[in-house]
Amino acid sequence: MRGDGGMQDATLHDRLARRGNMMDLEGFQLFPYPNAFLNGIVLVGLLSVLKFFTVTTWNLAVGLRAHVWSKLRNKNFVETYGRWAVVTGSSDGIGKGYAYELAKKGMNLLLISRTMEKLQKIKEEIEKEFGVEVEIMQVDFSHGKQCTRDRGTRERKGVNNVAVIVPHPMNFGEVSEHQLWSHVNVNVASPLAMTRMILPGMLERDKGAIVNIASIYGRYPVPMVQVYSATKVSTGWERRWK
Questions:
Q1: SUPFAM superfamilies per the record (predicted)?
Q2: Which of 1-15, 57-71, 129-143, 167-181 has the lowest mean pLDDT?
Q3: 110: Cβ–Cβ under 8 A, 6 or more apart, which residues?
Q4: How many CA atoms lie within 13 A of 116 on its CB side?
Q5: Closest CA to 134 of 81, 96, 86
Q6: Where are the alpha helices (DSSP H) in the chain?
Q7: CA angle 65–237–52, rounded 5-degree value
Q8: Would you give the distance in Å from CA 77 to the centre of its chain?
Q9: What sign results for the dihedral spanned by CA atoms 130, 131, 132, 134?
Q10: I need a labelling partner for 189 at 20 to 30 A (CA). Which of 18, 26, 49, 77 fits?
C-alpha cells in the first residue's frame, strides 16, 4: 500500500512540477520591467548578443572560405584568369609574395616596382624556380602618370599592391606637400590607373580578376598616420565597383 501511495505521490508531484513550469513559461515576458529605461537596457543587451553571434559566424565562414575551401578547390589559375598577371609593388613584402604564388600557379608575370635591381633579382629567381615568363618595369608611382603607359591587354589578373606610408608617425601639420601628393598618387591614383589600363582586355575576353590590397588603416582612422589612413579608404571601397 505504501508503495502504491508513494507512486501516486510521485505522479502528483510530477504533475504539479509540469504545471508550475507551464505557469512560469506562460508568465514569461521579454521586457519584464515597468521602467522603460531598464527595458531599453535589456533590448540593447539582446541586440549586442545577436550582433556578436552574427559577426562571429560571418568571420568564421570567411576564414573557412579563405583558408580551407580555397585549398580544397585547387583552382586552375591559367584557365580561370588567363596566362598573364601584373603585380605592382612586387619587389618586397606582400607584392613579392603574390608574385611567387602566381608563378607557382603557372602564370607569367609583369612585375612593376621602382627598384630595378630588386626586380631583376626576383625575375631571375622566379624564372629559374618556376619556368614562367617574367617581364619587369621600373615605375615610381609617386610621380603620377607613369603607370598609364600602354602595355597591351594580355594581363588578365591584376594585383594592386603598391602603397606608401610616412616614414614615422607624425602630426598632420608635419606632413610635407611632397609626402601628401605621394600618398595620393600611390595609394589612390595608381590602383585606379592600373585598373583602367588592364580592365578593357579582361572585359573583351570575359576573363580575369583584379585584387586590391587594402589595409585595416583604411577602415578605422589612425592617429599620426592620418594621410595614409585617409588614402587607403579608397582601396577598400574599390571592391564595391560595378
A1: NAD(P)-binding Rossmann-fold domains (SSF51735)
A2: 1-15
A3: 84, 85, 86, 87, 134, 135, 136, 137, 151, 155
A4: 2
A5: 86
A6: 2-26, 36-64, 70-73, 77-81, 93-104, 116-130, 177-183, 190-205, 226-237
A7: 50
A8: 20
A9: positive
A10: 77
Most confident of 56-70, 76-90, 119-133, 176-190: 119-133
Cβ contact 148:123 at 8 Å: no
Q: What is the rounded distance in angstroms from the CA atom of residue 180 to the CA atom of residue 187?
A: 11
Instruction: Please say if the pLDDT value at position 1 is more than 70.
Output: no
What is the rounded CA–CA span in Å between residue 147 and residue 102? Answer: 21
The neighbour count for residue 110, using CB atoms within 10 Å, is 22
Report the percent of the chain where pLDDT is more than 90.
32
Catalytic residues: 228
Residue type, 39: N
Judged on CB neighbours under 10 Å (0-12, 13-18, 19+), 107 is: buried
Does the pLDDT of residue 133 top 60, yes or no?
yes
What is the residue whose three cell numbers read 624564372? 127
